[in-house]
Amino acid sequence: MKPPIVFDYLDYRAFLKDMFLYRKEQVRHFSYRFFSRKSGFKSPNFLKLVAEGKRNLSRDSIPKIARGFDLKKQEKDFFEYLVLMNQAASHEDKNRFYRKMMNLKGYRSIRTLEKALYDYFSKWYIPVVREILMLGDRRQTAARVAPLLNPPITVSEARTAVASLQELELIRKNGSGEWEPVDRNLTTGPEIKSLVIANFHREMIRLAGESLERYPAKERDITGLVLSVRKDRMDEIKQKTAAFRKELLELASGEEDPDQVVQVNIQVFPLTKQMTRSTKGRER
């Protein structure tokens, strides 16, 4: 069994399970009780409870775990940020600790693709740059792409976007020096997937709000509905919006000479808690 590398993990509980099994294989007398004594925990099965998700780690217990597994400085720092990210309640805190993880040298050397994926969804202009590179003669440079976006981005940001797209193997140059798309699914673990997808939608919703000032009404469509429905009808509403998205994708895929990139946001979310008969004021 190879020793687990903490930089390979995005779930600290999975790391704890694997590291315990590895140490037990290497040292016959290694046990939960032995680990607790070495780390300074009073409970002999504390590590087991944490690994199984029955207990969380406090700020004080994180360095004890690191000591028990003899983690080095960078490994200890990464483990701390990983725990804090996994246990964070807010999206902002998850982002903050994940960025700290990405800045560690050990993470960058192992998970460069993960960072490119995070950037792709967290920076609104990267997927837009990909679409622009597919327009016209498909020989655009970062300097030509940057001023085409609205709001504009810098040449440096455009250059970083192109590099991220190449890192993710979403674009490539053919033998004629033209950009061409690569049909590739972007996948990651559930922890980071929920983080990056939320980042993407936050950015696009922000841009939608700014478009009210940035574009005249004839160049945008910002509309909404406030509906009263039963909660069990939400699935039907979501299916109809999914069908509409598919229809728009088919429309765009048949476009022979596109000259603009647009974002279509469709949002359906509750504005109230689910009401019972009593909260609606009805008599039985």
Question: TL;DR of this structure?
Answer:
With 284 residues, this protein is mainly alpha-helical.
Q: Which percent bin holds the helix content?
A: 40-55%
The computed structural class is: mainly alpha
Total beta-strand segments: 2
Main beta sheet, described?
2 strands, antiparallel
Question: Which strand order does the major sheet show?
Answer: 1-2
Report how far apart the termini are: 65 Å
H/E element order: HHHHHHHHHHHEEHH
Average pLDDT confidence is 91
Count of helical regions: 13
> Per the principal axes of the C-alpha atoms, what is the gross shape?
globular
Query: Unreliable runs, pLDDT <50, ≥5 residues?
Result: none
- The value of Rg in angstroms is 25 Å
Strand content: under 5%
Fold and architecture overview:
The chain has 284 residues and is mainly α. The chain has a domain at 6-110. It is built from 13 helices and 2 strands; from the N terminus they run αααααααααααββαα. It has helices at 12-26, 32-39, 46-51, 61-68, 73-87, 91-102, 105-110, 112-122, 125-133, 142-145, 155-167, 190-214, 234-253; strands at 171-173, 179-181. Strands 1-2 form a two-stranded antiparallel sheet. Strand 1 and strand 2 (179-181) form a beta hairpin. The longest helix is centred in the last third of the chain and has 25 residues, at 190-214. It is globular, with a radius of gyration of 25 Å.
Tags for this model:
mainly alpha, 13 helices, 2% strand
Strand-helix topology:
Layout lengths: L11 H15 L5 H8 L6 H6 L9 H8 L4 H15 L3 H12 L2 H6 L1 H11 L2 H9 L8 H4 L9 H13 L3 E3 L5 E3 L8 H25 L19 H20 L31
Antiparallel strand pairs: 1-2
Helix pairs in contact: 2-4, 5-6, 8-11, 8-12, 9-11
